[in-house]
Amino acid sequence: MTIARDRLRVAVQKSGRLAETSLSLLRRAGLSFRASRDRLFLYGENLPIDVLLVRDDDIPGLLMEGSCELGIVGRNVLAEQRLTALPGTDAPAERLALGFGGCRLSLAVTDGGPITVPAQLDGLRIATSYPGLLADWLAVNGIRAEIVVLSGSVEIAPRLGKADAICDLVSSGATLAANQLHELVAILHSEAVLAASPHPLGSAKAEQVERLCARIEGAQSSDGARLLMLQAPRAALAAITRLLPVRESPSVLSLDGLPDDIAVQALCSGALDWQHLEDLKRLGARGLMVLNVERMLA
Ligand code: PRP
Ligand code: ZN
User: Fold this and answer.
1) How does pLDDT run across 106-158, given as a tens digit for each residue?
2) Domain ranges of the chain
3) Which residues are within 8 A (CB) of 11 and not within 5 positions of it... i.e. 6 or more apart?
4) Nearest ligand by distance to the CA of 80
5) In what helix (H) or strand (E) does residue 260 lie, and over which residues does it extend?
6) Which residues form the signal peptide (predicted)?
7) Among the listed residues 185, 167, 156, the one whose alpha carbon sits nearest the alpha carbon of residue 127
8) Helix 75-84 vs helix 131-140: crossing angle, to nearest 10
9) Residue 139 CA to chain centroid, in angstroms?
C-alpha cells in the first residue's frame, strides 16, 4: 500500500563523510528546514521538500520502496545495490553527479606483508562491505578469492586474522595508514550523486524534482564563478578574451557616444588575480571589476 504524500522527500546521510556537504548543498539550492525533535526529519519551510536523515547504506532501499523520491548517496552504494538487488527489481538511478565526497573502493593489504599484486589474492580471504562490487571485479580479473562480508570496521579484519586483505573505501587514506594497510588497486571511483527512486512520479512531484535538480546544478556552477566587467577598445576584444578563464562567450555591449569602445561582461571560473587584471589593463581594458556570483540558473 502506498500512502499519498504530496511533499517530496530526500534521503541524506545523517552522519559521516557526505552528511554536512549534502545538507549545505540543499541549503545553497535555496531550501530551508526546521528540524524535528529527534533531528532525523527536516521539514522544508519554503518548499514542499523534506529531508530524512538516515544511514547511507539504507538510502537505496528507501528509494526502491518509494519512501523517498531522491537521495544523496555515494555512487559506490548505488552500484553495490544494483549488483546485489534481486533480479527483476528496479534499482535507483543516478540523476546528477554532485562533485563532492570523492573516494575510491580499493583493495588493501598489510604493510610489509607478502602480497604486492592483486593476482596473489587468489585463494585468499578478502573482507568487505561491498561483496557485489568485489565479486564483480574478481570475476573480471580472473581471481578466485573468498569474500568475507562485514558490515563495518573492515580495516581491522586482517589484524584479527579474519581476512588476508580488505576491499574498502579510501578517501584521505588516513584509515588505512592508521591500520598499517596500503592500497593495491582501486576498483571503483566514487563521489556523491543525487539518486532517484525508480517509481514513477505524479506530475506535481516530477516538477519539484526538476526544479530541485536545476537549482542544485545552478548552485554547483555558481561555485567559484566570477563576473568580470570592463571597458576596452573594440580592437582589443580578441586579445582580452584569450586572457580570460571564460566559461562561455562574453557579452559585448556598445557604449553610447564611444563607437570604438565596448563594455564586456564575462563569466569566469577559477582565479582572476591581480596579475590577470594587470595583463588586461595592458591590453587597454579599464574600469575592471570582479564580482562574486551569488546564484545562477541556466
Ligand atoms: C569509509 C571507510 C573508511 C573511511 C576511509 O567509511 O569505511 O572507514 O571512510 O576514509 P579515509 O581514507 O579518509 O580515512 P565511511 O565514512 O564511508 O563510513 P561507512 O563505511 O561506515 O558508511
Ligand atoms: Zn555506510
Assistant:
1) 999 999 999 999 999 999 999 999 999 999 999 999 999 999 999 999 999 99
2) 8-100+192-222, 103-190, 225-292
3) 51, 52, 54, 58, 59, 62, 63, 67, 68, 70, 71, 72, 73
4) 2
5) strand 258-269
6) none
7) 167
8) 80
9) 28
What atom in ligand 1 is closest to the CA of residue 55?
22
Residue with the smallest CA separation from ligand 1 atom 18 is 16
Statement: the pTM of the whole predicted model exceeds 0.85: no
* Cα-to-centroid distance, 237 and ligand 2 (Å): 52
What is the CA(127)–ligand 2 centre distance, in A? 15
Tell which residue, 188, 14, 26, 13, has the closest CA to residue 98. Answer: 26
Cα(281)–Cα(260) distance, integer angstroms: 17
Ligand nearest to the CA of 60: 2
Residue 8 phi, psi dihedral angles, 5° rounding: -80, 145
Judge if 8-100+192-222 and 103-190 fold alike in CATH terms: yes
pLDDT tens, 154-205?
Answer: 999 999 999 999 999 999 999 999 999 999 999 999 999 999 999 999 899 9
Counting from 1 in the atom list of ligand 1, the atom nearest the Cα of 173 is 12
Q: Is 174 in the pocket of ligand 1 (CB under 6 A)?
A: yes
Q: Whose C-alpha lies nearest to ligand 1, atom 1? A: 169
Q: How far is the CA of 7 from the centre of ligand 2 (A)?
A: 26
Topology of domain 8-100+192-222 in CATH is D-Maltodextrin-Binding Protein; domain 2 (3.40.190)
Cell of 25: 548543498
